[in-house]
Amino acid sequence: MSQRRISRQQSFRIDRIQAERIARASKREAKAEALLEGGALGAEQRGRIIAHYGVQLLVEALDGELAGQRFRCHRRANLDALVTGDEVIWQPATEAATGVITALLPRRSVLVRPDPYHKLKPVAANIDLILLIIAPEPTPSAELIDRYLIACEATDIQPLLVLNKADLISEGNRDSLTALLASFAALGYDTRTLSAHGDTGDLASLVAQHTVVFVGQSGVGKSSLINTLLPDVAQKVKEISTGSKLGQHTTTTACWFDVPTGGALIDSPGIREFGVWHMNKDELLAGFIELQPFIGACRFRNCAHASEPGCAFQQAVLDGHVQARRLASFKRLVSDIGTR
Ligand SMILES: Nc1nc2c(ncn2[C@@H]2O[C@H](COP(=O)(O)OP(=O)(O)OP(=O)(O)O)[C@@H](O)[C@H]2O)c(=O)[nH]1
Ligand SMILES: [Zn+2]
Q: Which of 163, 215, 224 to mutate to test the pocket of ligand 1 (most atoms within 8 A of CB)?
């Protein structure tokens, strides 16, 4: 992936948008402080961020008599960025279905992506399973899968590699697809083969036990899988991504969907692109889990893992501990960031 270069004109635009954002932020925080000073708020309790509505956040109450109900909330000034999936402390206000968020509870995981200034911004929190979807068509690229997995490793969220469109497996592609899945299974990644249009295997029960996101390249069947598993949700995601109901602010922010059978889905166009974002050299290396035991074992400290004598990575390939394709992929990704 190449970093986007920002033209002068674009950068003025970004500065203006940023200034507007700051102005809006101080306004919404002033509102939260006014509500807090007013003193007419209900008891502090736990809630979860479900979506962003422009300056307000939609919070679902997690405890007590309000559990399951949703409240449009302002946020205190001193809070860090809040994202969908965050668990928070909030207080209901006197106006119906509104409230104030006063604290962010610790995150179990967070997905981040770079903003136009290359600063990493959180986009969703507390996800515990990434469903990385591939399919016979579009033809899967092992290197693209590597990149998604690197991004997963950087988040500490468990990935599951799912080959969708099993009905399109034929004599012509069976061996290569089987080998592809096996090569990632050999690294320790869990895999599934299923079909959004047919047998979805244990996907429903997996989703029911987790907070999941679906990622993968365009056309692999993410929408179809969501549609098969959660028909109501698929429709809502569509409305959000076209911005038809909730306004333009929601087009890039993630939304939380409770799954009727348990578990939840967080989805947005931005999240679906997860994994093709910028990564630095340390993250790249950390993302190749099978290389970890060999880090620091090369003879030369600045080893490029090419043809140097005493390269532990090359030796690991010769010894059958590391796949040659994966080492080549790692080196290509490192050289890509070096030339940007
Ligand atoms: N044969 C077959 N086709 C499928 C299956 N799942 C999805 N498709 C088809 O693949 C195409 C793309 O599916 P989508 O669900 O739109 O893919 P997506 O990953 O959501 O694509 P983006 O929205 O572009 O990210 C559609 O024509 C689907 O009908 C499947 O299991 N079998
Ligand atoms: Zn080396």
A: 224
Same structural domain, 47 and 74: yes
CB 194, CB 204: distance < 8 Å: no
Residue 58, strand partner residues: 51, 72
* pLDDT at res. 212: 96
Please state the pTM of the whole predicted model: 0.85
Tell me the ipTM for this assembly: 0.98
Closest Cα to atom 30 of ligand 1:
165
- Is the pLDDT at 165 greater than 80? The verdict is yes
**Which range of residues forms the domain containing residue 309?**
281-338
Q: Is residue 262 part of a domain?
A: yes
- The ligand 1 atom at the shortest distance from the C-alpha of residue 269 is 25
- List the structure tokens of 120: 């990493």
**Alpha-carbon gap, residue 107 to 271, rounded angstroms:** 18
The residues with which 71 forms a beta bridge, in sequence order, are 59
DSSP 139: P
Same domain (yes/no): 144, 255: yes
Q: Name the nearest CA neighbour of 122 among 157, 89, 92.
A: 157
Residue 311, pLDDT above cutoff 80 = yes
